[in-house]
What we know:
Layout: H1 7-20, E1 25-29, H2 30-35, H3 44-56, E2 59-61, E3 76-81, H4 105-113, H5 119-133, E4 141-151, E5 154-165, E6 175-181, H6 190-203, E7 207-211, E8 215-220, E9 229-235, H7 243-249, H8 252-264
Parallel strand pairs: 6-7
Antiparallel strand pairs: 1-3, 2-3, 4-5, 5-6, 7-8, 8-9
Helix pairs in contact: 1-3
Amino acid sequence: MPKNPPIADVVEEMFQSVLASPQRQRRLLSKTFWGGFGFKTRTRDRIEQVKTSLRQRSLLVNHDEEVFGTEGKNEWIVLTYVEPKPPVVTSGSDPQLKDVPTPPDSWFTMMEQRNFESEREVEYYFVVPLLEQLGYEEDDFAIGYPVQMYEGVKKVHKEADFVLFNGSSRAKEDVLIIVEAKKLGRPITRDAIGQARSYALWLTPAYYLVTNGDTIRLYLFRGAIGDDVPVKTFERSDMQQHWNLLHETIGKAAAIERKQQLLKS
């Protein structure tokens, strides 16, 4: 490639190499990834152009958006191809309009203004209403769900805050979402994310998310075939603008579709 190749050309080459891998995933050191673009410095504009080009090729990275582009040169960047779903269109004249059931503005305002005094209130007054709006019903909820797992050779018994199933079945193949809730104001640490992932390794959901009632971190579970992918991190106050993303990932119908893909992999 030339010294300063077009960004789209570099991403296209990466895209083809990811597609050629059995896991649809590729690991690159940060210095190798950014070196391919020929940048002397990673300016905000250049990072945004790379993000846009990656999204256009349905390539997700293993870093949150605010971290991507600031990694150390010896940190790993993992590129994962997630096949885009065809758009769901309305019966109107514009084929690009998506028919996404959206709560009224008053619901978002109410959710934004709520205060939570404990982890339990985060669960019942934030997580439950959110998931109900995303299509989940009473039979789908398992609160304080027991998870039997191993730490080394020792069998341990844990409880996941929320596990969302496809109906009243509690079979592993019907696990859709795992939610780990923390108290409002408590930062979402790597340990909290690791805890949710540890449950995911035993229950194999489509996605898992961690929230403290203000910040929502959503992850695509990749099972045994590769690293999980951070889909989005955003604040409760921005939930309305990210509603389409939530509906198209952890909405019940979308989660069922993703789980079916996971079971086939």
